[in-house]
Amino acid sequence: VQLQASGGGLVQAGGSLRLSCAASGRNLIQYMVSWFRQAPGKQREFVAGITWSGQATRYVDSVKGRFTVSRDKFKNTVDLQMNSLKPEDTALYYCAAKVLDASNFGYWGQGTLVTVSS
Fold it and tell me: What separation in angstroms does the CA of 61 have from each of 27, 29, 53, 64, 106?
């Protein structure tokens, strides 16, 4: 599985950004694709994830109600719509994939930087 993230940028607090993770490979239906982020000086954390079928989603509590993860079956992308952005959302965002019953994410894309100014 190959992943390529895009869509980061600079936005003011309260604004919106949409990240996109382009995925390619065989049997994607067997995978979950998720977004992680790592802020300066902090550990990487899970943000949101979706099964390739689109039937199940998960979010970290801090983004619930503000972020929406979705899959575009025509573009083969997993998108993260981020609204009501806060300065604490500033981080390098990565997309990653794992087989549904695996414990670890084995496939990672490059990061895309999101900076939220106050």
Answer: 30, 26, 23, 5, 24
Res 1: pLDDT: 92
Q: How many CB atoms lie within 10 A of CB 103?
A: 7
Cβ 51 vs Cβ 100: under 8 Å: yes
**What's the Cα-to-Cα distance from 17 to each of 5, 31, 41, rounded to whole Å?**
13, 25, 23
Q: What letter does residue 108 receive in the DSSP assignment? A: E
Q: pLDDT under 50 in the chain at which residues? A: none
Instruction: Please tell me what DSSP assigns to residue 30.
Output: G
Residue 97: which of 36, 8, 11 has the closest Cα?
36
- Which residues, including other chains, have CB under 8 Å from residue 40's CB and lie 6 or more apart? 91
